């Protein structure tokens, strides 16, 4: 018996399309967050002096700041720091640049969450993806650190926009019984490894940025062939469009569709919409309008905050780890993905584990 929209969403070719789209979106995010772009060089000597071979980098930096050292640097990746000669303490300007870019990141999250609720998932995400590609390419031609920061701040605004939307889009598109494990498998972790491989062969931040942001145009094409979220269409009372979208999804999958059952479910959803539309629109402050919602919201906020501090603390300070920055990133991505696969298997095969345990256990391990 098909009683809700979820009952009509099945695994098939359309699910594969959504999975590929989501993974490409996640990979694009690396163009903003990847630590290789701002990897600092090491000062190893001075071209104009013969007495610096034994000096510690801190002493070399003192000579550099005094203007008596024409620097010789060693680096694994031709980053923004290397190209714009941000050496020694000047590297803090790169950290400042990253902080400014994070402002665009936060504003984009606030703006596009509301935009996607108002105008749908597909078209706002398509705009964000396309703008990410354009601004990613534009930023790769920046001639100074100031212009780099400006373009990357705009890039981060749209970059986070499509990430905010795609997370909801995934949940609304994946079949109910496969929703969680697919979210684990198609996630951030694999693209850490892919991005590191691309960075290794790119060897400079401009080529790397262009390579990753070219994926935006691939994502734009993929998204063009995707349907709007059925859930969003129904909630907006656009039942006829929802029916057409569901029929097209089933044609792509090659599945039989019970038209009468679908119409009954959609009509039921439409009646629910008519009964509840007088309650008005929801905004951010409604997340805190009851004690129960306040508790849920604060729990999620603190969870994401704690995990983000650990994640970004590592990703933005990879230069302090010994060894290859490429191998270290691949190792982190592989380890995270292993945990993802274990969580996916547990969720699919042992429903009694529950989402609460799946959320709490990794956080305790991170601690």
Automatic annotation (TrEMBL):
One of its GO terms (cellular component) is membrane. SUPFAM superfamilies: MFS general substrate transporter (SSF103473). The chain crosses the membrane at residues 123-143, 149-169, 181-202, 214-234, 293-314, 326-346. Keywords: Membrane, Transmembrane, Transmembrane helix. It is a multi-pass membrane protein. The keyword Transmembrane applies. It comes from the Eukaryota. One of its GO terms (molecular function) is transmembrane transporter activity. The keyword Ribonucleoprotein does not apply. It is found in: Membrane. This is Major facilitator superfamily (MFS) profile domain-containing protein.
């Amino acid at each position: 018996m098909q009683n809700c929209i979820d009952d009509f969403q099945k695994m098939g070719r359309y699910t594969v399309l959504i999975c590929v789209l989501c993974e490409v979106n996640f990979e694009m995010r690396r163009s903003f967050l990847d630590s290789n772009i701002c990897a600092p060089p090491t000062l190893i000597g001075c071209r104009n002096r013969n007495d610096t071979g034994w000096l510690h980098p801190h002493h070399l930096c003192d000579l550099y700041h005094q203007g008596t050292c024409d620097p010789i640097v060693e680096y694994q990746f031709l980053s923004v720091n290397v190209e714009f000669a941000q050496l020694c303490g000047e590297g803090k300007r790169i950290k400042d640049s990253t902080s400014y870019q994070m402002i665009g990141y936060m504003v984009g999250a606030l703006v596009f969450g509301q935009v996607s609720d108002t105008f749908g998932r597909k078209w706002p995400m398509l705009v964000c993806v396309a703008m990410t590609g354009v601004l990613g390419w534009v930023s790769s031609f920046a001639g100074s650190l100031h212009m780099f920061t400006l373009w990357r701040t705009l890039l981060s605004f749209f970059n986070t926009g499509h990430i905010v939307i795609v997370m909801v889009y995934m949940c609304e598109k994946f079949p109910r019984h496969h929703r969680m494990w697919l979210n684990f498998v198609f996630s951030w972790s694999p693209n850490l490894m892919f991005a590191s491989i691309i960075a290794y062969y790119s060897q400079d931040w401009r080529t790397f940025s262009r390579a990753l942001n070219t994926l935006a145009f691939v994502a734009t094409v993929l998204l063009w062939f995707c349907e709007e979220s059925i859930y969003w269409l129904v909630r907006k009372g656009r039942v006829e469009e929802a029916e057409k979208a569901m029929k097209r999804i089933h044609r792509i999958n090659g599945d039989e569709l019970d038209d009468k059952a679908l119409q009954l479910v959609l009509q039921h959803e439409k009646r629910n919409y008519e009964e509840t539309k007088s309650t008005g629109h929801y905004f951010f402050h409604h997340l805190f309008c009851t004690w129960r919602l306040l508790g849920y919201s604060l729990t999620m906020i603190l969870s994401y905050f704690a995990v983000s501090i650990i994640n970004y603390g590592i990703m933005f300070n990879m230069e302090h780890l010994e060894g290859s920055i490429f191998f270290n990133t691949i190792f982190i991505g592989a380890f995270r993905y292993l945990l993802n696969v274990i969580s996916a298997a547990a969720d699919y095969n042992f429903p009694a584990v529950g989402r609460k345990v799946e959320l709490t256990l990794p956080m305790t391990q991170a601690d």
